[in-house]
Amino acid sequence: MSEHLSDEELARFLRESAEGTAADAPKEPSARARMVTARLREQEARGELPQGWRTPADLGGHRRRAARHRRVKAALAGVVVLGLAVLALNPSLLPGHPWGDGPATGDPATARRLPAETAAPTAAPGAAPGAATLEDPFAGSPAARWQEGAESVVMPPAKATGVFSRQQVARALEGTRTLLVDANVAPATLRGAQPKAALGVLDPLQPELLDDLRTSLRDPGEEDNPLLLFSRFDPEETRVVGDRVRARGRTTLEEGERGALSITADYTFVYPVTRADEDSTEVTRAVVRRVLRLEMPDPERVVATPGKLMIKRYDSQWSNGGCGTADGWAHPEFPSDPHGAAPSGGATVDPYDRSGAVGAGGECGVFSRI
Prior knowledge:
Keywords: Membrane, Transmembrane, Transmembrane helix. By secondary structure, this protein is an alpha+beta fold. The chain is built from 7 helices and 8 strands. The protein has helices spanning about 5-20, 30-45, 60-90, 165-185, 185-190, 195-200, 210-220, and strands at about 145-150, 240, 245-255, 260-275, 285-295, 310-320, 350, 365. Strands 1, 2, 3, 4, 5 and 6 form a 6-stranded antiparallel β-sheet that branches. It has a two-stranded parallel sheet with strand order 7-8. Strand 4 and strand 5 (about 285-295) form a beta hairpin. The longest helix is centred in the N-terminal third of the chain and has 31 residues, at about 60-90. The chain starts with 6 loop residues before the first helix and ends with a strand.
Protein backbone atom coordinates (compact mmCIF):
# COMPACT_ATOMS: atom_id res chain seq x y z
CA MET A 1 0.00 0.00 0.00
CA SER A 2 1.54 3.26 -1.14
CA GLU A 3 1.73 6.22 1.21
CA HIS A 4 0.60 9.62 -0.01
CA LEU A 5 1.51 12.83 1.89
CA SER A 6 -0.07 16.21 1.30
CA ASP A 7 2.17 19.22 0.67
CA GLU A 8 1.41 20.58 4.17
CA GLU A 9 2.28 17.25 5.80
CA LEU A 10 5.46 16.99 3.80
CA ALA A 11 6.54 20.52 4.73
CA ARG A 12 5.83 19.89 8.41
CA PHE A 13 7.72 16.58 8.27
CA LEU A 14 10.77 18.18 6.70
CA ARG A 15 10.73 21.07 9.20
CA GLU A 16 10.39 18.85 12.24
CA SER A 17 13.01 16.53 10.92
CA ALA A 18 15.46 19.39 10.58
CA GLU A 19 14.68 20.60 14.10
CA GLY A 20 14.72 17.11 15.59
CA THR A 21 11.31 17.52 17.14
CA ALA A 22 9.22 15.12 15.12
CA ALA A 23 7.65 12.71 17.56
CA ASP A 24 7.09 10.02 14.97
CA ALA A 25 10.05 10.79 12.67
CA PRO A 26 11.74 7.66 11.46
CA LYS A 27 15.37 7.27 12.09
CA GLU A 28 15.90 6.75 8.39
CA PRO A 29 13.79 8.72 5.87
CA SER A 30 11.68 6.55 3.62
CA ALA A 31 12.58 6.11 -0.03
CA ARG A 32 9.63 8.33 -1.00
CA ALA A 33 10.73 11.08 1.37
CA ARG A 34 14.23 10.98 -0.04
CA MET A 35 12.82 11.13 -3.59
CA VAL A 36 10.55 14.11 -2.84
CA THR A 37 13.33 15.94 -1.06
CA ALA A 38 15.67 15.42 -3.99
CA ARG A 39 12.99 16.62 -6.44
CA LEU A 40 12.34 19.81 -4.41
CA ARG A 41 16.04 20.59 -4.24
CA GLU A 42 16.37 20.19 -8.01
CA GLN A 43 13.38 22.53 -8.57
CA GLU A 44 14.85 25.06 -6.17
CA ALA A 45 18.19 24.92 -7.99
CA ARG A 46 16.42 25.58 -11.31
CA GLY A 47 14.50 28.51 -9.82
CA GLU A 48 11.13 26.84 -10.23
CA LEU A 49 10.08 27.32 -6.60
CA PRO A 50 8.90 30.72 -5.25
CA GLN A 51 11.53 32.66 -3.33
CA GLY A 52 11.40 31.97 0.38
CA TRP A 53 9.41 28.66 0.19
CA ARG A 54 11.56 27.25 2.93
CA THR A 55 13.23 30.27 4.54
CA PRO A 56 12.58 34.05 4.46
CA ALA A 57 15.34 34.63 1.86
CA ASP A 58 14.20 38.26 1.20
CA LEU A 59 14.13 39.27 4.85
CA GLY A 60 17.35 41.27 4.48
CA GLY A 61 16.01 43.15 1.44
CA HIS A 62 12.79 43.90 3.26
CA ARG A 63 14.70 45.29 6.20
CA ARG A 64 16.87 47.41 3.87
CA ARG A 65 13.77 48.88 2.17
CA ALA A 66 12.19 49.64 5.54
CA ALA A 67 15.37 51.39 6.73
CA ARG A 68 15.56 53.38 3.48
CA HIS A 69 11.92 54.43 3.88
CA ARG A 70 12.62 55.61 7.43
CA ARG A 71 15.62 57.65 6.23
CA VAL A 72 13.52 59.33 3.49
CA LYS A 73 10.82 60.23 5.99
CA ALA A 74 13.42 61.67 8.37
CA ALA A 75 14.97 63.76 5.56
CA LEU A 76 11.56 65.13 4.50
CA ALA A 77 10.75 66.00 8.09
CA GLY A 78 14.06 67.90 8.32
CA VAL A 79 13.26 69.89 5.16
CA VAL A 80 9.83 70.83 6.55
CA VAL A 81 11.32 71.98 9.87
CA LEU A 82 14.00 74.03 8.07
CA GLY A 83 11.37 75.64 5.81
CA LEU A 84 9.22 76.61 8.79
CA ALA A 85 12.26 78.13 10.51
CA VAL A 86 13.09 80.22 7.41
CA LEU A 87 9.50 81.48 7.13
CA ALA A 88 9.45 82.32 10.82
CA LEU A 89 12.53 84.50 10.37
CA ASN A 90 11.38 85.93 7.02
CA PRO A 91 7.55 86.08 6.98
CA SER A 92 7.67 88.43 3.98
CA LEU A 93 8.51 85.38 1.83
CA LEU A 94 4.90 84.31 2.16
CA PRO A 95 2.42 85.99 -0.21
CA GLY A 96 0.23 88.59 1.38
CA HIS A 97 2.44 89.09 4.47
CA PRO A 98 0.25 86.96 6.77
CA TRP A 99 1.74 88.57 9.88
CA GLY A 100 1.20 92.13 8.71
CA ASP A 101 2.94 94.67 6.50
CA GLY A 102 5.34 95.95 9.12
CA PRO A 103 5.76 99.51 10.30
CA ALA A 104 6.26 102.27 7.73
CA THR A 105 9.48 103.55 9.25
CA GLY A 106 12.70 104.71 7.67
CA ASP A 107 14.40 101.38 8.43
CA PRO A 108 14.87 99.71 5.02
CA ALA A 109 14.97 96.32 6.71
CA THR A 110 11.43 96.65 8.06
CA ALA A 111 9.66 99.19 5.86
CA ARG A 112 7.54 97.74 3.09
CA ARG A 113 8.36 99.61 -0.11
CA LEU A 114 5.50 101.15 -2.06
CA PRO A 115 4.67 99.76 -5.50
CA ALA A 116 5.49 101.91 -8.50
CA GLU A 117 3.36 105.00 -8.97
CA THR A 118 0.90 104.49 -11.83
CA ALA A 119 -1.37 107.53 -11.47
CA ALA A 120 -1.18 111.08 -10.18
CA PRO A 121 -1.60 111.21 -6.37
CA THR A 122 -4.66 113.01 -5.07
CA ALA A 123 -3.11 114.17 -1.79
CA ALA A 124 0.19 114.51 0.04
CA PRO A 125 1.52 111.39 1.82
CA GLY A 126 0.96 111.11 5.54
CA ALA A 127 3.45 111.86 8.27
CA ALA A 128 6.29 109.41 8.94
CA PRO A 129 7.77 108.79 12.40
CA GLY A 130 11.39 109.23 13.35
CA ALA A 131 14.25 111.61 12.66
CA ALA A 132 17.11 111.33 10.17
CA THR A 133 20.40 109.83 11.34
CA LEU A 134 23.52 108.60 9.56
CA GLU A 135 22.33 105.03 10.10
CA ASP A 136 18.75 105.74 9.03
CA PRO A 137 18.84 108.87 6.83
CA PHE A 138 15.25 108.52 5.56
CA ALA A 139 13.61 108.20 8.96
CA GLY A 140 10.78 110.71 9.38
CA SER A 141 10.34 111.01 5.61
CA PRO A 142 7.71 109.47 3.29
CA ALA A 143 10.72 108.44 1.19
CA ALA A 144 11.37 105.74 3.81
CA ARG A 145 8.97 103.59 1.79
CA TRP A 146 10.22 104.62 -1.66
CA GLN A 147 12.53 102.66 -3.89
CA GLU A 148 16.23 103.53 -3.84
CA GLY A 149 18.82 104.27 -6.49
CA ALA A 150 18.33 103.57 -10.18
CA GLU A 151 15.53 101.11 -9.31
CA SER A 152 13.42 104.05 -8.14
CA VAL A 153 13.05 105.34 -11.71
CA VAL A 154 10.53 102.96 -13.24
CA MET A 155 9.34 103.17 -16.84
CA PRO A 156 5.93 102.01 -18.09
CA PRO A 157 5.65 99.06 -20.51
CA ALA A 158 6.53 100.03 -24.06
CA LYS A 159 3.74 99.98 -26.62
CA ALA A 160 3.46 101.06 -30.23
CA THR A 161 2.43 104.72 -30.35
CA GLY A 162 1.64 106.68 -33.49
CA VAL A 163 4.21 105.94 -36.18
CA PHE A 164 6.63 104.39 -33.66
CA SER A 165 6.93 100.65 -33.07
CA ARG A 166 7.08 99.08 -29.66
CA GLN A 167 10.86 98.64 -30.05
CA GLN A 168 11.31 102.34 -30.89
CA VAL A 169 9.18 103.37 -27.92
CA ALA A 170 11.20 101.04 -25.66
CA ARG A 171 14.39 102.75 -26.80
CA ALA A 172 12.88 106.18 -26.07
CA LEU A 173 11.82 105.08 -22.59
CA GLU A 174 15.28 103.68 -21.88
CA GLY A 175 16.77 107.01 -22.94
CA THR A 176 14.38 108.81 -20.62
CA ARG A 177 15.41 106.60 -17.73
CA THR A 178 19.11 107.13 -18.50
CA LEU A 179 18.59 110.89 -18.49
CA LEU A 180 16.77 110.87 -15.14
CA VAL A 181 19.16 108.48 -13.39
CA ASP A 182 22.38 110.08 -14.60
CA ALA A 183 21.13 113.60 -13.89
CA ASN A 184 19.71 112.93 -10.42
CA VAL A 185 20.98 109.65 -8.94
CA ALA A 186 24.50 108.90 -10.23
CA PRO A 187 27.03 109.56 -7.42
CA ALA A 188 29.52 111.17 -9.81
CA THR A 189 26.93 113.68 -11.01
CA LEU A 190 25.96 114.50 -7.43
CA ARG A 191 29.60 115.43 -6.78
CA GLY A 192 29.79 117.66 -9.84
CA ALA A 193 31.05 115.37 -12.60
CA GLN A 194 29.87 115.81 -16.18
CA PRO A 195 26.64 113.80 -16.68
CA LYS A 196 27.80 112.33 -19.97
CA ALA A 197 25.20 109.58 -20.16
CA ALA A 198 22.36 112.06 -19.66
CA LEU A 199 23.71 114.40 -22.31
CA GLY A 200 24.30 111.46 -24.63
CA VAL A 201 20.61 110.62 -25.05
CA LEU A 202 19.75 114.14 -26.23
CA ASP A 203 19.53 115.03 -29.89
CA PRO A 204 22.52 117.12 -31.01
CA LEU A 205 20.32 118.56 -33.75
CA GLN A 206 18.12 120.36 -31.21
CA PRO A 207 19.22 124.00 -31.58
CA GLU A 208 21.41 125.33 -28.75
CA LEU A 209 20.13 122.98 -26.05
CA LEU A 210 23.28 120.92 -25.54
CA ASP A 211 25.46 124.01 -25.77
CA ASP A 212 23.39 125.74 -23.09
CA LEU A 213 23.49 122.72 -20.78
CA ARG A 214 27.24 122.32 -21.12
CA THR A 215 27.72 126.02 -20.46
CA SER A 216 25.66 125.80 -17.28
CA LEU A 217 27.79 122.90 -16.03
CA ARG A 218 31.08 124.57 -16.96
CA ASP A 219 30.29 128.17 -16.00
CA PRO A 220 27.10 128.31 -13.92
CA GLY A 221 25.28 131.53 -13.17
CA GLU A 222 21.81 132.96 -12.68
CA GLU A 223 21.00 132.59 -16.36
CA ASP A 224 22.79 129.24 -16.72
CA ASN A 225 21.83 127.20 -13.70
CA PRO A 226 22.56 123.45 -13.97
CA LEU A 227 20.30 122.76 -10.96
CA LEU A 228 17.32 123.25 -13.24
CA LEU A 229 18.07 119.82 -14.74
CA PHE A 230 20.88 118.26 -12.67
CA SER A 231 21.33 117.58 -8.94
CA ARG A 232 24.75 118.66 -7.64
CA PHE A 233 26.23 119.18 -4.16
CA ASP A 234 29.56 120.88 -3.50
CA PRO A 235 31.78 118.01 -2.23
CA GLU A 236 33.81 120.47 -0.16
CA GLU A 237 30.67 121.48 1.73
CA THR A 238 28.13 118.65 1.64
CA ARG A 239 28.02 114.93 1.00
CA VAL A 240 25.07 112.66 0.30
CA VAL A 241 24.91 110.06 3.08
CA GLY A 242 26.08 106.78 1.58
CA ASP A 243 25.30 108.11 -1.92
CA ARG A 244 21.75 107.03 -1.16
CA VAL A 245 18.96 108.63 -3.18
CA ARG A 246 15.30 107.72 -3.21
CA ALA A 247 12.72 108.77 -5.75
CA ARG A 248 9.08 108.35 -6.65
CA GLY A 249 7.21 109.26 -9.77
CA ARG A 250 5.89 108.09 -13.08
CA THR A 251 6.40 108.41 -16.83
CA THR A 252 3.56 108.67 -19.35
CA LEU A 253 3.63 108.66 -23.12
CA GLU A 254 1.28 109.64 -25.93
CA GLU A 255 1.28 110.71 -29.54
CA GLY A 256 2.25 114.36 -29.71
CA GLU A 257 2.10 117.09 -32.30
CA ARG A 258 3.19 116.32 -35.86
CA GLY A 259 3.37 112.61 -35.11
CA ALA A 260 6.01 112.93 -32.37
CA LEU A 261 6.25 110.51 -29.46
CA SER A 262 5.59 112.68 -26.39
CA ILE A 263 7.00 111.56 -23.02
CA THR A 264 6.31 113.24 -19.68
CA ALA A 265 8.43 112.30 -16.65
CA ASP A 266 7.37 113.54 -13.18
CA TYR A 267 9.66 112.46 -10.31
CA THR A 268 10.58 113.63 -6.82
CA PHE A 269 14.13 112.91 -5.62
CA VAL A 270 15.16 112.92 -1.94
CA TYR A 271 18.79 113.39 -0.83
CA PRO A 272 19.88 112.80 2.79
CA VAL A 273 22.96 114.95 3.36
CA THR A 274 25.49 115.75 6.04
CA ARG A 275 28.42 118.14 6.14
CA ALA A 276 31.56 117.20 4.26
CA ASP A 277 33.47 116.88 7.54
CA GLU A 278 33.94 113.15 8.17
CA ASP A 279 33.10 113.68 11.86
CA SER A 280 29.75 115.30 11.10
CA THR A 281 26.69 113.42 12.39
CA GLU A 282 23.93 115.95 11.71
CA VAL A 283 21.66 114.90 8.85
CA THR A 284 19.10 116.84 6.88
CA ARG A 285 17.51 116.30 3.49
CA ALA A 286 17.16 118.14 0.19
CA VAL A 287 14.21 117.41 -2.07
CA VAL A 288 13.63 118.27 -5.72
CA ARG A 289 10.66 117.54 -7.91
CA ARG A 290 11.30 117.50 -11.64
CA VAL A 291 8.85 117.43 -14.54
CA LEU A 292 10.34 116.91 -18.01
CA ARG A 293 8.53 116.81 -21.32
CA LEU A 294 10.54 115.00 -23.96
CA GLU A 295 9.86 114.20 -27.59
CA MET A 296 11.06 111.79 -30.21
CA PRO A 297 10.09 113.51 -33.48
CA ASP A 298 8.66 111.75 -36.50
CA PRO A 299 11.72 111.61 -38.80
CA GLU A 300 9.44 112.00 -41.84
CA ARG A 301 8.33 115.42 -40.63
CA VAL A 302 11.19 116.82 -38.52
CA VAL A 303 14.93 116.78 -39.02
CA ALA A 304 16.14 114.73 -36.07
CA THR A 305 18.65 112.08 -35.07
CA PRO A 306 16.99 108.63 -34.97
CA GLY A 307 16.72 107.26 -31.44
CA LYS A 308 17.60 110.57 -29.73
CA LEU A 309 15.35 112.69 -27.53
CA MET A 310 14.54 116.38 -27.59
CA ILE A 311 13.67 118.33 -24.45
CA LYS A 312 10.61 120.50 -24.96
CA ARG A 313 10.29 121.75 -21.37
CA TYR A 314 11.77 121.07 -17.94
CA ASP A 315 10.61 122.42 -14.57
CA SER A 316 11.98 121.85 -11.09
CA GLN A 317 11.09 122.75 -7.53
CA TRP A 318 13.76 122.49 -4.85
CA SER A 319 13.13 122.33 -1.13
CA ASN A 320 16.15 123.05 1.05
CA GLY A 321 19.22 123.90 -0.94
CA GLY A 322 18.65 124.34 -4.65
CA CYS A 323 16.56 127.48 -4.61
CA GLY A 324 18.03 130.90 -5.23
CA THR A 325 21.58 129.68 -5.79
CA ALA A 326 23.72 130.85 -8.71
CA ASP A 327 26.95 128.89 -8.30
CA GLY A 328 25.67 125.59 -9.70
CA TRP A 329 25.53 123.78 -6.34
CA ALA A 330 22.67 122.93 -4.01
CA HIS A 331 23.35 124.25 -0.49
CA PRO A 332 21.11 122.48 2.04
CA GLU A 333 20.68 124.15 5.42
CA PHE A 334 20.83 122.19 8.67
CA PRO A 335 18.66 122.59 11.76
CA SER A 336 21.67 123.88 13.70
CA ASP A 337 22.36 126.62 11.13
CA PRO A 338 21.54 130.19 12.23
CA HIS A 339 18.51 130.43 9.93
CA GLY A 340 17.18 126.96 10.72
CA ALA A 341 16.38 124.36 8.11
CA ALA A 342 14.17 126.48 5.85
CA PRO A 343 14.37 129.77 3.96
CA SER A 344 12.32 132.66 5.28
CA GLY A 345 9.38 134.15 3.39
CA GLY A 346 7.37 132.77 0.48
CA ALA A 347 4.54 130.28 0.39
CA THR A 348 4.68 127.08 2.40
CA VAL A 349 5.47 124.01 0.32
CA ASP A 350 5.21 120.32 1.19
CA PRO A 351 8.07 118.85 -0.85
CA TYR A 352 6.44 115.41 -0.79
CA ASP A 353 3.09 116.57 -2.16
CA ARG A 354 2.97 115.37 -5.76
CA SER A 355 -0.75 116.00 -6.27
CA GLY A 356 -0.40 119.54 -7.66
CA ALA A 357 1.58 121.23 -10.39
CA VAL A 358 5.31 121.62 -9.92
CA GLY A 359 6.27 125.03 -8.59
CA ALA A 360 2.76 125.74 -7.36
CA GLY A 361 4.12 126.97 -4.03
CA GLY A 362 6.51 129.48 -5.55
CA GLU A 363 10.15 129.25 -6.53
CA CYS A 364 11.59 129.75 -3.04
CA GLY A 365 8.86 128.88 -0.59
CA VAL A 366 9.13 127.64 2.97
CA PHE A 367 9.04 123.85 3.13
CA SER A 368 6.69 122.38 5.71
CA ARG A 369 8.82 119.27 6.28
CA ILE A 370 11.96 117.71 4.96
